[in-house]
Design goal:
The chain is α+β, with helices and mostly antiparallel strands. A hairpin with a 2-residue loop joins β12 and β13. α3 packs across α4. It is built from 7 helices and 13 strands.
């Protein structure tokens, strides 16, 4: 009995061993299994083209292609059309017209504006073409005496035309005949980095006079730091500015004469009653005392 049991146990042990070996060999040859439930899901691949399409296009500011060109100005933070006109020696209305601005109060940083007349060079060629036509008409006149008289008249009128052509160019400092805009004392002298003009003292209501003949290109209080302001354009070179007034007596586009009362002194946007007076040469502030007569 014991022998049979021993043999049976041995056979069972062998069978169990064979089963274990079979299981072990099966597990060694099994392909690795990925646990997808525990692995993080990968996002679907997106092509570069799809990314570009999804990114909204940034619209460049108007006129950006002209940045840096002569006669063009790039708008900076806190700029207004009035300030741009003052700093470039131009009427803000002209700048709005040259740039076809529907709303002059709406300009954006980075926008490029033209600050010189766009058609300034068109007039001379047109005038030059008209002259040969007139001469040919005179040459076709059949009467020789009349033709000679016409030639003599033309030659005699030629010298007179030369001074007329040069007259507009003569807008120099001396020709303007500058006068002081106020009789008060100078409170602060010109300093290119700190004070772009003269500060002249006085009492509230004192007269403020036009320093030279000119045209009002701005009258209002839309320029921060200047209070109630008047800007006069005297010629293609010079502007003058009169700031901190309490009352403005002229309007935009009005022509004024040297010595005309254009405002009353005040303290708008200022810590005291005074006139801040600037002279701008092609938009650049210059020392007014270099143009004003000595006291």
């Amino acid at each position: 009995m014991y022998g049979l049991f021993h043999r049976g146990g041995t056979l069972a042990s062998v069978a169990l061993a064979l089963v274990l070996v079979g299981c072990s060999s099966t597990s060694l040859n099994r392909a690795p299994v990925e646990d997808r439930a525990s692995a993080p899901a990968k996002p679907p691949a997106v092509s570069a083209t799809a990314n570009l399409a999804a990114t909204p296009a940034v619209k460049p500011p108007p006129g950006f292609e002209n940045a840096g060109k002569p006669g063009d100005y790039t708008v900076k933070p806190n700029d207004t059309l009035i300030r741009i006109g003052l700093e470039n020696g131009q009427n803000h209305k002209d700048i709005a017209r040259w740039n076809n601005l529907d709303n002059p109060n709406k300009i954006e940083v980075g926008q490029v504006l033209r600050v010189i007349p766009p058609a300034a060079g068109d007039a001379p060629p047109t005038a030059a073409v008209a002259k040969p036509v007139t001469n040919s008409a005179i040459a076709s006149t059949p009467l020789a005496p009349a033709s000679a008289a016409s030639s003599a008249a033309a030659s005699s009128s030629a010298p007179a035309a030369t001074p007329a052509a040069t007259a507009p160019v003569s807008g120099s400092d001396e020709d303007l005949g500058w006068i002081w805009p106020s009789n008060g004392p100078v409170l602060a002298a010109f300093d290119e980095s700190k004070n772009k003009g003269l500060d002249i003292g006085g009492a509230a209501g004192d007269p403020v006079l036009a320093s030279a003949d000119g045209k009002v290109v701005y009258a209002g209080e839309g320029l921060r730091g200047y209070g109630k302001l008047i800007i006069l354009k005297h010629n293609s070179t010079f502007l003058t500015a009169y700031a901190h007034n309490q009352t403005l007596l002229v309007k935009e586009d009005q022509t004024v004469k040297k010595g005309q009362k254009i405002a009353e002194m005040g303290n708008t946007d200022s810590d005291r009653v005074k006139l801040h007076f600037e002279v701008r040469r092609q938009g650049k502030p210059v020392d007014p005392t270099k143009f004003l007569p000595s006291r």
